[in-house]
Amino acid sequence: MTSNRGAPRARRAAFAALWMAALLAPPVIATEDAGVEIRWTAFGVPHIRASDEYGLGYGVGYAYARDNLCLLADEVLTVRGERARFLGRDGKSSSGLDNVRSDFFFRWLNDDARIARYLDRQPPEARQLLAGYAAGFNRYLASDGAERCRGSAWLHPLQENDMVRLVQRLQVGAGIGRFADAMLAAVPPSDQAAKPAADQAFDSTRDKDFAQEQGSNAIAVGGQRTENGKGRLLANPHFPWVGALRFYQMHLTIPGKLDVMGASLAGMPVVNIGFNQHLAWTHTVDSSSHFTLHRLTLTPDDPLHYQFDGQRQALSRTTLSIEVLEADGQLSTQRQDVYLSRFGPVVVRPGLLDWNERHAYALQDANLDNTRALQQWLSMNQAHDLGSFKASIQDIQGIPWVNTLAVDDQGDALYLNASVIPNVSARQLQTCALPELIAKGLPGLDGSRSACDWQQDAAAAQPGLVPGRHLPQLQRRDFVQNANDSAWMSQPDAPLTGFSPLISREGRALSPRTRYALDLLHQRAEQPLSEAFLQRLVTDNRVYLADLLLEDVLAFCASRPQPDDVERSCAALAGWDRHASLESGIGMLYFQHLVAALTQLDKSWRVPFDATDPVNTPRGLAWQRSEVGTQLEQALAKAAGAVKATGLAQGTRWGQVQGARQGDTWIPVPGGDGQLGVYNAIQSQPRDAGRREVVGGTSYIQLVSFTDKGPVARGLLAHSQSSDPASPHYRDQTVLFSRQEWPVLPFTQQQIEADPSLQTLRLWARE
Questions:
Q1: CA distance 537 to 550
Q2: What is the pLDDT of residues 479-491, one digit of tens each?
Q3: Residues near 142 by Cβ (< 8 Å), separated by ≥ 6?
Q4: Which of 661, 760, 749, 736 is nearest to 43 (CA)?
Q5: For 617, which of 273, 328, 610, 736 could close a Cys bridge (C-beta 3.0–4.6 Å)?
Q6: Residue 202 near residue 349 (C-beta atoms within 8 A)
Q7: Torsion angle in degrees (nearest 10) through CA of 651, 652, 653, 658
Q8: Band of the pLDDT at 526, cuts 50, 70, 90?
Q9: Computed over its alpha carbons, how large is the radius of gyration of the chain?
Q10: Which residues form the catalytic set?
């Protein structure tokens, strides 16, 4: 259906009214002193000081708008479900969904009732931060922002509800956010033939992308392994360089109440990864399940009803409606049905999660009822000791899908996986798990019996969750680490075992990044884990998987005369230094393609995985076995063909292949695929002329050591502070990252005031 309601003049008038309403609305301020001070040091890092949470949020919103106004406005357009209305059908949101699907999904996720409930459950301090952030953002938008995103009809004032929409989007990234396509593809069997095949499509790569792009490394060193008996932390999160999961550096202060520095995600008025006077912490994406899939047993001849404990229950249907800007400039109205069970939405993945006459599958996401994330990080920001820090995480249970590693100035190191996890015991899984889904790495349960439901525990912060104090935790004086594997081997001297598989799985092969870190940590068993050693873990750019495979690959190459294409791969690999540094040879590219072509690597190891020796196994390639030798020869030939297709010369260096395009500037970027065991994990995508452009990976780096005078920190933001090409901070830190330089992070007043780049702005939050 077509309408003229989208006429440009009407849209402009409507948004002008919204703009004025947002700017004239009186802010809610907790104290009469509404002064806000923002001091910018080198690389555009804002140090924001205010007398209360409203003023602090105001300063954060203003500073963030100065650097990333268009980025946040675009993300708000996404979470409001209005991309297709203003941008049309073409294009995608940073969620990876096309505009139409993105709008349908976020209209469902961020419906008015859910947003109102989220806001209603916030403590006063969190509400003040949200309200202040929106007002500060709008202050900048009104004063200078009109010059940005010029001609964009979608640019309008930020509202407090928009802040909650952004947080909701972040929270469900490890759950229903991965299954948005699958939810929108779910139609009853009787309607499937009539629905276009494209509408039933499910993008299965979205599962893989989340695990790859939102990874991280972390090492928390206790006083037994430092020079002065105090804590030391390496934080190396691997997150996207664009969109809502792009980090932003800032320093927040409310005198006598809060003094914390670090990085946060778009729209977050708190520090997600950071440090204060007594503590430093970071996060790594965990391997736990934050959702479960439930197989519904449908009533015979009625696919809209299912059986639960022998009782008939109906699927409810919600009809979503969005507007789409068509090619002729008119707005059409599009509708989409979503089907809901007692567990959550019905989802479809053809061939695995089918909706037929007998069964359907519904997804239950623990984070859909998690309203505690802002409260959680605010509490962590204010913690003064490791005990209160740990207790706040275990009791509030607001962390959506990450592990937490921390150190303090007393020399303790902590690992926690106190995220939001369904309470399904190992005993339940014995009778309730669906083997066909478990085999695919999906937590599938029988949805026809209450005995398979999430269990209730009064100690949990939310019904159906595992209580925080029952989740993996380890506090030590030597070290703990994590590189996205389960809790099991966070410290090999103290394995964490006995948990439900939804929480942690012991006895599984470790990732190459985890093995690389544990191997080097073990080699330094009698020495302090110095700052130089921790920094070198990242900047060395060692490709650990090459250490496990390459000797056997080269032995195969030397074992017989090889075809020309195989010989090209062999020669390139033989001359490669097994690093992903800027000066490393093109062998890095050959190795990347070789591993991608070794599709049966898990069956080809010379020394298979041994759960009693997880750090040293598996290793080697059993090329002497005919089937492995044949596969290796084919993979080497395929790698040669892939590199030849790029047109790159054999003498090309890795720094000439991989880089970041910042405006018209190409900046070489070291690092490589984390699945190859590169600690400095970088995701890059092929571009013209054989180049690979960075889209994510190492983002905010933080190396914090405690001294008698407090924290001393170094680090950087690999993609730089600003997403605005006109900003002087659009590429400055990316150049540092290319050179692998980690500058000091100015935290003390003396450091801030001594910074030669210091700029100061004072705002009045009532203006």
A1: 20
A2: 999 999 999 999 9
A3: 19, 23
A4: 736
A5: 610
A6: yes
A7: -170
A8: confident
A9: 26
A10: 216
Spell out where 176-231 has E strands.
215-221
Fold of 544-656: 1.10.1400
Q: Using CB atoms within 10 A of its CB, is residue 182 exposed (0-12), middle (13-18) or buried (19+)?
A: buried
Q: Rounded to an integer, what distance in angstroms lies between the CA atom of residue 271 and that of residue 279? A: 13
Instruction: Enumerate the β-bridge partners of residue 414.
Output: 406, 475
Q: Mean pLDDT over residues 526-536, rounded?
A: 96
Residue 662 has what pLDDT? 85
101 touches 83 (CB < 8 A):
no
Q: Which tokens belong to 130?
A: 């949200």
Which residue type, as a one-letter code, is found at position 207? D
Q: What is the pTM of this model?
A: 0.94
pLDDT tens digit string along 114-138? 999 999 999 999 999 999 999 999 9
Looking at the DSSP assignment, which residues form a beta bridge with residue 660? 667
Contact 676/747 with Cβ under 8 angstroms?
A: no
Residue spans per domain, the chain: 2-174, 544-656
Most distant CA pair in the chain: distance in Å? 83
Tell me the average pLDDT across 321-336: 97
**Lowest pLDDT segment from 34-38, 418-422, 757-761:** 34-38
- The CA distances from residue 722 to 242, 314, 738, 753, 754, in Å, are 11, 50, 17, 23, 23
Task: List CB contacts of 700: < 8 A, sequence separation 6 or more.
Answer: 235, 237, 239, 247, 249, 262, 263, 273, 715, 716, 717, 718
Residues 614-627 pLDDT 10s: 999 999 999 999 99
pLDDT by residue (tens digit) across 58-82? 999 999 999 999 999 999 999 999 9
Residue 65 identity (one-letter amino acid): A
DSSP 445-492: EETT-GGGSPPP-TTSSSTTBPPGGGS-EEEESSEEEESSS-GGGSST
- Name the burial class of residue 569, with classes exposed (0-12), middle (13-18) and buried (19+) by CB atoms within 10 angstroms of its CB: buried
- Yes or no: say if 284 and 403 are a contact pair by the CB < 8 Å rule: yes
Mean residue pLDDT across the chain: 93
Number of C-beta neighbours around residue 196 at 10 A: 7
The secondary structure of 119-142 as a DSSP string is HHTS-HHHHHHHHHHHHHHHHHHH
Q: What is the DSSP string of 403-426?
A: EEEEEETTS-EEEE--S--B---H
Q: Which of 469, 470, 473, 491 is nearest to 482 (CA)?
A: 491
**Kind and range of the H or E element at 696?**
strand 692-698
Element (H, E) at 524: none
Q: What is the 3-state secondary structure (H, E, C) of 318-340?
A: EEEEEEEECCCCCEEEEEEEEEE
Centroid of chain to Cα 636: 33
- Asked if the domains 2-174 and 544-656 are classified in one and the same CATH topology, the answer is no
Strands across the sheet with 331-340, in order? 2-3, 331-340, 316-325
Pairwise CA distance, residues 242 & 725, whole Å:
13
User: Rounded to whole angstroms, how far apart are CA atoms 362 and 522?
Assistant: 45
Query: Considering only the top CATH level, what class is 2-174?
Result: mainly alpha
Inter-CA distances, 380 with 70, 245, 258, 377, 397, Å: 29, 20, 10, 5, 12
% of the chain residues with pLDDT over 90: 89
Phi-psi region of 697 (alpha: psi -120 to 50; beta: other; left: phi over 0): left
For the cut 50, the answer to whether the pLDDT of residue 18 exceeds it is no
CA distance 71 to 267: 10
Q: Dig out the tokens for 367 from the structure.
A: 């984070």
Parallel/antiparallel/unpaired status of strands 479-482 and 658-662: unpaired
Report residue 432: phi and psi, to 5°. Answer: -110, -20
Other CB atoms within 10 A of residue 137 CB: 31
